[in-house]
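One record is kept unedited as follows:
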Amino acid sequence: MCVGLKVKIADIENGMAVVDASGVKRTISAELIDDLAPGDYVMVHAGIAIAKIEGDEDTEADEVMEAVNGN
């Protein structure tokens, strides 16, 4: 099973993004997704942003992670 994590874009430049994952900052590749900006949320797998999370998907992603964590 592969798990993607929901993270918030803190900064983006030259196809790379600094993301905030619950207070932990990491640099990831953002080359696969156009039109990202600071404040956007993305799904990350293996250090690569694989999908932009928008609207109701944000709430759904939070609910899935809560269910996985047993909350």
Notes: The CA atoms of residues 12 and 66 lie 28 Å apart. The chain is about 20% helix and 45% strand.
